[in-house]
Amino acid sequence: MATYKGISGALIRTTAQDPTNPQVGEIWFNTTLGSLKGRLYIDSVFASGGNMNTPRASTGSATKGTQTSALIFGGESGSGNKNLTEAYNGTTWSEVGDLNTTRKNLMGAGTQTAAVGFGGYTNPGGFTDVTEEWNGSSWTNGNAMNRAKDSAGKAGIQTAALSVAGRGTPGVTTLSDVEEYNGTNWSEVTNTPVIMTQPQAFGIQTAAVTAGGASPPSSPKYNPAITFEYDGSSWTGGGNINNPRGLGGTAGTQTAGVIMGGYQAPPDAVQNNVEDYNGTAFSNAPTLSTARTGNGCGGSTAGLAITFGGALPAFTATTEERQEGYQGNVTLTTST
Questions:
Q1: Mean pLDDT across the stretch 232-255?
Q2: 42-61 pLDDT, tens per residue?
Q3: How many whole angstroms separate alpha carbon 137 and alpha carbon 1?
Q4: Shortest CA distance to 130 belongs to which of 102, 110, 172?
Q5: Does CATH number 1.10.240.10 belong to domain 45-323?
Q6: What separation in angstroms does the CA of 255 have from each of 17, 83, 288, 315?
Q7: Is 137 exposed, middle or buried (0-12, 13-18, 19+ CB in 10 A)?
Q8: Which stretches of the chain are DSSP H helices?
Q9: Calpha distance 200→197 (Å, rounded)
Q10: Separation between Cα atoms, residue 238 and residue 277, nearest integer Å
Q11: What's the average model confidence in pLDDT over 21-29?
Q12: Distance between CA 306 and CA 244 in Å, rounded?
């Protein structure tokens, strides 16, 4: 029978209190507690947060919001398109000022007190180029985008937002055009190398990533190979995502980003998988408790992300907050 000494070359240490700076994998017996303890790495997980007041999907959100200050606006529910805005304080969602233009499939960027919502789809009316700015209590119309569109990738803040590809006019066209917002006007900049709709973007205006989405007539529809990084002027290829999809929630930076959930086709399925991006490659991360697509999102880094709402396919109001992985002392056994 193997012993700890035979495996590690040392006896288990006996001590009256936990060591000050134990190493991961170290084991000791705490005589005060009568417990065998060890230092382990606890992986990150998604934990439930407070439910939104209105279940919905295809929303805009403050992508730079945090787990204690998130914002969701617009979208659709079982009763049609919405102009509702809700703010999250880490525990409870509260209804605040409504959008001026009711729409779904809109894009959003910024924080809970300084957000911007742009584009989307109105019914009736179709694609819209409307831009609205949020000051923490109300929405004000800003200057329109150069092209009416929805389902674009989005990144940045209110005064430096980014709109990536999407779907828009004329007709129903998959796009490659990219626009930057400076807080006043939209400017057309370098197109993405391929056309795409429903891509998942994250980062800031000068350091962004767009991954996945639909790029017809590719097969499968959601192509895992389509990842590009943006430096503020040009696009270069990035690491492939592992699970081909679009419409997932995103958060974080170009070197610490995340995609949460989304829709994969084929097979036609809503996803609960999560992937982290380190600036080079995507890796699988702990999954969501609830599979969802068209979900709102926020978070300063991948490890501190939040996602809310979405469809599965029924509209949901649930919120999930990522608890970042950490090292901790764990009780292995207790003497009796």
A1: 95
A2: 778 999 999 999 999 999 99
A3: 67
A4: 102
A5: no
A6: 39, 33, 21, 31
A7: exposed
A8: 4-8
A9: 9
A10: 10
A11: 88
A12: 21
- Say what the alpha-carbon torsion angle 89, 310, 49, 54 is, to the nearest 10 degrees: 60
- The whole-angstrom separation of Cα 70 and Cα 65 is 5
> Going by C-beta distance under 8 Å and a sequence separation of 6 or more, which residues neighbour residue 145?
118, 119, 129, 130, 131, 163, 179, 186
The span from the CA of 191 to the CA of 234, in Å, is 8
Q: Can you name the residues that pair with 47 across neighbouring β-strands? A: 321
Side chain identity at 269, as an amino acid letter? Answer: A
Nearest CA among 131, 129, 132, 150 for reference residue 76: 150
- Residue 154 tokens read as 């989005």
DSSP H or E stretch at residue 122 = strand 121-122
Question: What does the block give as tokens for 55?
Answer: 């279940």
Taking the alpha carbons of 15, 328, 283, 48 in that order, is the dihedral positive or negative?
A: positive
CA distance 335 to 327: 24
- Please give the structure tokens belonging to residue 319: 């919120």
Could you read off the pLDDT of 67-86 as tens digits, one per residue? Answer: 999 999 999 999 899 999 99
The more confident residue out of 107 and 7 is 107
Domain boundaries, the chain: 4-42, 45-323
Judge if the upstream peptide bond of residue 19 is cis by omega within 30 degrees of 0: no
Residue 211: CA count within 13 A, CB half-sphere: 30
Residues 96-102: contacts with CB under 8 Å, at least 24 apart = 96/137, 97/134, 97/137, 97/138, 97/139, 98/139, 99/73, 99/74, 99/132, 99/139, 100/130, 100/132, 100/139, 100/141, 101/128, 101/130, 101/132, 102/74
Q: To the nearest 10°, the Cα dihedral for 178, 98, 262, 51?
A: 150
- Token couple for 322: 């990522």
Residues 190 and 233: beta-carbon distance below 8 Å = yes
The string of pLDDT tens digits covering residues 145-169 is: 999 999 999 999 999 999 999 999 8
List the one residue out of 196, 200, 198, 159 whose CA is nearest residue 177: 196
